[in-house]
Design brief:
Elements lengths: L7 E9 L4 E3 H5 L6 H8 L3 E3 L7 H16 L6 E7 L10 H9 L5 E5 L5 H15 L4 E9 L9 H4 L4 E10 L7 E9 L7 E2 L22 E2 L1 H22 L9 E4 L4 H11 L10 H4 L6 H11 L8 E8 L3 E8 L1
Parallel strand pairs: 4-5, 4-6, 11-12
Antiparallel strand pairs: 1-7, 2-3, 6-7, 8-13, 9-10, 12-13
Helix pairs in contact: 3-4, 7-8
Bound molecules: oxa(dethia)-CoA.
C-alpha cells in the first residue's frame, strides 16, 4: 500500500458552547479589572462558561453529533474517538468514552489526549496516522474544555482569559487527495518550560485536598508575559517552516487559523507573515481562550461565514502549556 498517497481530510465539523455568557463588564464586578484593559491586552470581549449542573461532555457530544451529521457518517461507522482536553469531566473515565456512550458509537475505541492548547492539532495528526494505515477508518477528533472549572475567579491575571466550549471534526480518507487533505504537520514540545503554565493540584504529585500545596495551585496559573514571548516566536517559526518545506509562500494561504490565546499574538503573526486581516481567523472576542477547543471553534465559524471552502489552503498553528506546539498545513 502506498501510504503517502492516502490523505486524510476533515469531512464534517461541529461545535457547541454553553449558552451562559460572561462579559468583560461582568468580570469588572468580580475582580480588579476593566473592559478597556481586557480588550486592549487580549482582544476578548466575552466568553461562554458552564453553569452548575452542566458538564463539558454535554457539549462535546453535541458538537460530535453535528460533525457526524455534516459528514453524513453514522455513529456506528466511527472507529476511534480522540478527545483533546485538559479538563475532562472526570480523571476516570476519559471524556472520550463519555462521548462514545453519548453518541452510541458502538464500534469505536476512545481515548483522551493531553497536549493543552495544541491538543486539537496533535489529535488531528494522530488521526491522520491511523487513517494512513486504515484508510477506511472514520475518526472523531474533538477539542473540548471546561476551563471555567479550573479558574481562580479571584485571580485577574487568568480569569479574564479563559472560556469553555467544544469543537468536533470527523476525519477520514480524502475523497480527492489532490485537492483536499492534510499536506504536512509540525509537532513539538519543550518540557523545560513547564513551570510557566501549570495546574499542579489534583494530579498524582499533589492529589486533591493535599494540604502541602497552596489553594491557588488547584487552579490554572500562568506567567503570561514569558509565555507570550515564546508563543509569538514559535508560532511564527512553525508557520514559516511548514510553508517553506512545502514550497508555499504566505500569499498562497487562503486562511490562517491560529490558536486563539491573545489577539496581539495573532496580530504579530499576521504581520510577520504579511497577511491581510481577511486571511486570518479571529473569534477570540466571543470565546476567549478555550485551549484545545479553540482551533475547531475557529474552523467551524470560518466555514460557516464562507471564509473556508473545499480545497482552500489552510494553515493551523497552536501553542500551549508544557510547552507544546503544533501546526498543520491542509487543503480544506
Ligand atoms: O493558550 C496558551 C498560551 N497562552 C498564551 O499564549 C498567553 C500569553 N500571554 C498573554 O496573552 C499576555 O501576557 C496576558 C494577556 C496574559 C497579559 O498581558 P500582558 O500585556 O503581558 O500584561 P502583564 O502580565 O505584563 O501585566 C501588565 C499589568 C500588570 O500591572 P503592573 O505590574 O504593570 O502594575 C498586571 O498586574 O497589567 C496588570 N494586569 C491586569 N490589569 C487589569 C494583569 N491582569 C490584569 C487584568 N486587569 N485582568
Amino acid at each position: 500500500m502506498n501510504f503517502n498517497k492516502i490523505k486524510s481530510a476533515v469531512l464534517g465539523i461541529g461545535m457547541a458552547v454553553p449558552p451562559k455568557v460572561l462579559t468583560n463588564f461582568d468580570l469588572e464586578k468580580m475582580v480588579d479589572t476593566s473592559d478597556e484593559w481586557i480588550t486592549e491586552r487580549t482582544g476578548i470581549k466575552e466568553r461562554h462558561v458552564l453553569e452548575d449542573g452542566e458538564n463539558i461532555s454535554d457539549y462535546a457530544i453535541k458538537a460530535a453529533k453535528e460533525a457526524l451529521e455534516k459528514a453524513e457518517v453514522s455513529p456506528e461507522e466511527i472507529n476511534l474517538i480522540i478527545c483533546a482536553t485538559v479538563t475532562p469531566d472526570y480523571i476516570i473515565p476519559s471524556l472520550a468514552v463519555l462521548v462514545q456512550d453519548g453518541i452510541k458509537a458502538s464500534n469505536a475505541g476512545a481515548f483522551d489526549l493531553s497536549a493543552t492548547c495544541s491538543g486539537f492539532i496533535y489529535s488531528l495528526i494522530v488521526a491522520d496516522q491511523f487513517i494512513k494505515i486504515n484508510p477506511d477508518w472514520k475518526i472523531l477528533v474533538i477539542g473540548a474544555e471546561a476551563l471555567s472549572r479550573k479558574t481562580n475567579w479571584q485571580d485577574r491575571t487568568i480569569c479574564v482569559l479563559l472560556g469553555d466550549g467544544a469543537g468536533a471534526a470527523v476525519v477520514g480518507k480524502s475523497p480527492d487527495p489532490e485537492k483536499r487533505g492534510i499536506i504536512d504537520f509540525y509537532l513539538g514540545a519543550d518540557g523545560s518550560c513547564w513551570p510557566l503554565l501549570t495546574l499542579k493540584g489534583g494530579g498524582s504529585c499533589f492529589p486533591p485536598f493535599d494540604e502541602r500545596l497552596p489553594k491557588e495551585e488547584f487552579y490554572i496559573k500562568m506567567k503570561g508575559r514569558e509565555v507570550f514571548k515564546v508563543a509569538t516566536r514559535m508560532m511564527e517559526k512553525i508557520c514559516l517552516d511548514l510553508l517553506e518545506r512545502n514550497n508555499f509562500s504566505p500569499e498562497d494561504i487562503k486562511l490562517l487559523v491560529p490558536h486563539q490565546a491573545n489577539l496581539r499574538i495573532i496580530e504579530y503573526l499576521r504581520e510577520k507573515l504579511g497577511l491581510p486581516k481577511e486571511k486570518v481567523m479571529v473569534n477570540i472576542n466571543k470565546y476567549g481562550n478555550t485551549s484545545a477547543a479553540s482551533i475547531p471553534l475557529a474552523l467551524y465559524e470560518a466555514e460557516k461565514e464562507g471564509r473556508l471552502k473545499k480545497g482552500d489552503l489552510v494553515l493551523l498553528v497552536a501553542f500551549g502549556g508544557g510547552f507544546t506546539y503544533g501546526g498543520a498545513l491542509l487543503r480544506w
